[in-house]
Amino acid sequence: MFAAEREYQFRPSNVTSIAAATPPTLASVFKSQPIETIQAGSALFWERDPAKHIFEVVEGVLRVVRIIGDGRRIITGFVFPGDLVGISMKDRYLYGAEAVTVTKVRRFARSAFQEKINQCPELRPKLFARLCDEMAAAQDQMALLACKTAEERLCSFLLLLARRTGAISKSTATVDLPMTRQDIADYLGLTIETVSRNMTKLTARGMIVPKGRHGYQFKIDRLALLAGDDDADNNSYDDHDMVVGQRFGRP
Amino acid sequence: MFAAEREYQFRPSNVTSIAAATPPTLASVFKSQPIETIQAGSALFWERDPAKHIFEVVEGVLRVVRIIGDGRRIITGFVFPGDLVGISMKDRYLYGAEAVTVTKVRRFARSAFQEKINQCPELRPKLFARLCDEMAAAQDQMALLACKTAEERLCSFLLLLARRTGAISKSTATVDLPMTRQDIADYLGLTIETVSRNMTKLTARGMIVPKGRHGYQFKIDRLALLAGDDDADNNSYDDHDMVVGQRFGRP
DNA sequence: CGAGCAGTTGAACAACCTCAAAAACGGTGG
DNA sequence: CCACCGTTTTTGAGGTTGTTCAACTGCTCG
User: Fold this and answer.
1) Which nucleotide is nearest to B203 (CA to C1')?
2) Are residues B102 and B59 part of one domain?
3) Residue B237, in any domain of the structure
4) Out of A119-123, A150-154, B137-141, which region has the weakest mean confidence (pLDDT)?
5) Chain A contact for B128 (CB, 8 A cutoff)
6) A128 contacts chain B (CB < 8 A)
7) Taking the CB of the first residue and of the last residue of chain B, which one, N or C, has fewer CB atoms within 10 A?
8) Residue at the smallest CA–C1' distance to nucleotide D10
């Protein structure tokens, strides 16, 4: 849900004495909490459950699920390690969170979390930035759902995965698709058949190359061309405090 | 963009009676700023402009616009009086804001706004709540775009307008549609023709009744039935810092 | 080996889109 | 007040993309 704070991953080793020299990060709030394991397919919480906790994903992938009316399902996002899920001001969750793979999380009571945020002024802009990142992602997704063709949606999705979880070496990305076709379809506003057909088509055209059971490999810029939003920096890494200029012509 | 703070208007008296003298609201931050007028059709700011200011809409309607790739346009939201627009942590706006009608706004420098927020601890949860509300709205919109039929989208849209701007008297709402069909189409991920046809169809069925130039009248619950998300409370007002225990089943 | 499930493929169909033209509106200037 | 023009909206006919329904493949796990 919330964009990972990549910049904090390589935090200098520093032992947690009480709020003293520790550079406070959102992750550090959860640091002391025990790790819980969620089996693949089971839910961390359901839509409309009382929103008592906030979770940090340590490992694995969650899907964020909403059901409307007559059982139609939509996945509004996937949650990756480093992300938080369950943040809200309502007293009930607006969505469910289910494990796509076996997932490890840390739990924090919402009230305690709020207190923590209020106590540490350094934390607030970070939380705020995450909300803004998530908002930006939601707008991207709206653009995808409102405008893009099935093929463009799939390419956008693969690029998203590459950015969030993929192994990238010199403009070639290798991604794993742990979620089912149904999950992908519900995320992209398509049917499983359309997802399947377009994956086949992309493979046939050599735009993506299957690697192993659920893996694919592709050239980032070639797929970016097919993703629709050829806007300058939309496909590059976020310009939060980095400026990455990797952008050539063609191979 | 940000949902109006309805919840604070009718706050029950038993809750937090902290600041007696000045109840600080987000609106009060802008109170002292001069009012600027934007002509219909012109922009308050453009996508990718340096994000120097935050605006409060006092009167009128703005549309929030994004352009992807080859000129496809999407409207991610409309901004009504009481809402804020332009909030972000990036240094450039992720979207443009254009006046649908003549619009009056108050402007506030982003840096000054941030400072204000940091100074007033009462303001922070309110800003936070707005972000969360907006996030919830974005998720609703994703569900709409991913799942709903053209007719359902239009009904949802009319209900949204009724909630935000409409005159409601005993289950009958009267709304004004100041935006063009093109705006509606770009908001709902449809074409103007589809919008037009479905409006005609709804009118023919007597589900909505034209009132004046751009106005329509309808029974809220009848339209809610057609809006797709027949979820219990989706169309009701939000239960912000109230704990409503409406939930039987069994614990 | 067979049951069960996820994924693929095919053919017919529907919803929505595209293109085109007509109609309604709103402003402007006689 | 009316005639004119540009714009927005409506209406129509035909085309496309993605859906639906159905059969088939292949994998995993008893």
Assistant:
1) D10
2) yes
3) no
4) A119-123
5) yes
6) yes
7) C
8) B196
Q: What is the CATH number of the domain that holds B169?
A: 1.10.10.10
Q: B137 touching A, CB under 8 A?
A: no
- Residue A117 distance to chain B (closest CA, Å): 11
Q: pLDDT, tens digit, for every residue of B61-73?
A: 999 999 998 889 9
Q: Looking at the structure, do residues B178 and B201 belong to the same domain, yes or no?
A: yes
Are both B19 and B101 inside the same structural domain?
A: yes
Q: How would you write chain B as a 3-class SS string?
A: CCCCCHHHHCCCCCCCCCCCCCCCCHHHHHCCCCEEEECCCCEEECCCCECCEEEEEEECCEEEEEEECCCEEEEEEEECCCCEECCCCCCECCCEEEECCCEEEEEEEHHHHHHHHHHCCCHHHHHHHHHHHHHHHHHHHHHHHHHCCHHHHHHHHHHHHHHHCCEEECCEEEEECCCCHHHHHHHHCCCHHHHHHHHHHHHHCCCEEEECCCEEEEEHHHHHHHCCCCCCCCCCCCCCCCCCCCCCCCC
Task: Tell if B199 CB is < 7 Å from nucleic strand D.
Answer: yes
Residue B134 shares a structural domain with residue B206:
no
Which of the listed residues B144, B169, B188 is the one where a domain comes to its end? Answer: B144
Within-domain flag for A136: no
Q: Which residue has the tokens 């979390």?
A: A113
Q: Say yes or no to pLDDT of B243 above 50.
A: no
Q: Is B162 found in the same domain as B138?
A: no
pLDDT in tens, A15-38: 444 545 566 788 888 889 999 999
Six-digit token pair at A34?
């025990």
Q: Measured in angstroms, what separates residue A161's CA from nucleotide D28's C1'?
A: 26
Same-domain pairing of A96 and A32 = yes
Nearest CA in chain A to B1: A135
- Residue A70 — very low, low, confident or very high, per pLDDT cuts 50/70/90? confident
Partners of residue A139 in chain B, C-beta under 8 Å: 66, 76, 94-95, 138
Domain boundary among B111, B144, B177: B144
Do residues B139 and B158 share a domain? no
> Per the structure, how many domains does chain B have?
2
Same domain for B180 and B68: no
Q: Which of residues 64-83 of A touch B (CB under 8 A)?
A: 66, 68-70, 72, 74, 76
B192 CA: nearest nucleotide by C1': D9
Residues in chain B closer than 8 A to A229 (CB atoms):
68-69
List, for residues B168-205, the tens digit of each pLDDT value.
888 999 999 999 999 999 999 999 999 999 999 999 99
Please say if the pLDDT value at position A139 is more than 70: yes
Q: Is the CB of B191 under 7 A from strand D?
A: no
Query: Which pLDDT band, with edges at 50, 70 and 90, does A4 fall under?
Result: very low
CATH number at residue A77: 2.60.120.10
Tell me whether residues B139 and A91 touch, CB distance under 8 A.
Answer: no
Domain that holds residue B188: 150-226
